[in-house]
Write a structure and sequence with these properties.
Blueprint: H1 2-68
Protein name: 7459_t:CDS:1
């Protein structure tokens, strides 16, 4: 009886350890996925910012030319 009870305790302990290991692996995967998503978001934001800067660089000279352009004198 003693050996059987001891084996049951050991098996319960091992099952709990295995469950904890699986939960920890899932947490680690989730953490890594969040990090990956964050990096992708930063890359998209950076790419969007670069595009916005390129557009601004191209548009600003046009705006300056238009703004500095004087209307024709009809007098």
């Amino acid at each position: 009886k003693f050996c059987h009870r001891k084996r049951e305790e050991i098996n319960e302990f091992l099952e709990l350890q295995e469950k904890e290991r699986v939960v920890n692996m899932a947490r680690e995967r989730n953490r890594e996925e969040k990090i990956r998503q964050g990096q992708q978001l930063v890359q998209k934001t950076s790419s969007s910012s670069d595009t916005q800067n390129a557009i601004s660089t191209e548009i600003n000279p046009i705006i300056k030319i238009t703004h500095n352009h004087k209307p024709p004198d009809y007098n």
